[in-house]
Amino acid sequence: MEGPVGDRSTKKILQVLDGEPVWPLPIWVMRQAGRYLPEYRETRAKAGSFLDLCYTPQLAAEVTLQPIRRFNFDAAILFSDILVIPHALGQNVSFVENEGPKLEPIVEQTDLNRIAEELPIERLDPVFETLDRLKTALPKETTLLGFCGAPWTVASYMIAGKGTPDQAPARLKAYRDPAFMEALIDRLVRASTAYLIRQIDAGAEAVQIFESFGSALPPALFERLSLDPIRRIVSGLKAARPQARAIVFVRGGGTHLAKFADEGIGDALALDWTLDPASALTNLPANVATQGNLDPLALVAGGKPMTAGIDRILNAVRGRPHIFNLGHGIVPETPVDHVQQMIDRVRGAGV
Prior knowledge:
By secondary structure, the chain is α/β, with parallel strands linked by helices. It is built from 16 helices and nine strands.
C-alpha cells in the first residue's frame, strides 16, 4: 500500500490536502493528459480505441507522465475514464470518435439486473497496473492522484446512453422512478468506493471525485443524488484507508459548498469557473482546502484575460490551503505555451 517514492513532507499537494497553506501554490490541471498535447495525440493514435488506451497500462502510464515531463505539475492524475465502472459492471460502453461515449441505456430494473451487483474488481486490473507503474516512475515530489466519477454523473450516462446537455433523461427518471434511481446510485456508491480503495492500494495517494453534472440537479434532488452519495464514498474510503485524501469537484455546486465543508465531505473542495473565489471563500472556514478555478477558456485566450484570472485567484487564496487548477478540464484547443505561461505566473508569485 505504499505510494510513490518520497514522503508527504516533499509533496505540496498533500500538504494542502492536510490543511496547510503552501506558497507559491501547487498546481495541476484537470485533463492535463489530453488532446492539447501533440505527444498525447501521437500515443492515442497508436492505441486504437479510447478504451484500449485506458486499459493498456504501458500507454496509459505514458500519457499520464507526458504533462509531468513537459510542465512538472505538482500532481499526476491517472489516465482513465469515469465510465470504466459501468463497463466493468457489464454495461456495453464504447467511445465514438468526435461523438463521445455510447452506452446501452439502463432504464428499468430488468436492465439493472443484467449488470453486476458488486464491482468485479479484477476487470479493472489494467488500471491498477497503470498506477503501479506510475508510483515508481514519478518524481518524488509529485503526488499521484486517482479518481472516479460521482454516482449521479455516471448514472446520467448509464441512463441516457450518452452525454446529454441537461441530463434530462436521468432527471426525469429520478422523478418518475425514485426506487430505480436509488438502486442504481447505491450500486455505484459501492462500486466507486471499492474502486477508489483499490486505487489507493495500487499507489494513488489522493483521489478526486468528479461530479461533472452537479449543475443539472435542482435543490430537491441534490442532497439525495449528489451530496449524500459522495459523502458515503468518502466515508467508506477513509474508513478503509485512513491515509487517503479526497478532493470533491461538483461542477455547478457553488451554493452547496458550505454544506460539504460543514459536514467534512472531502479534504478539498474544487471550485468551478463560475465562482468568484473571493466571494466563494467567505462562506468557507479558513482551514478548508480548496482547488481551482481559472476558466478554461481564459487559458485558451491567454494574455490579459488569463493573467487577470490567475491574479484574481492568487489574491483571493493567499494564506489559505489551496491548489491552483482550472474550473473544469483543459480543452483541446488550448495553446501549449499558454499552459507554461500560466504555470510560470503561479509559481512566480511573490513570496
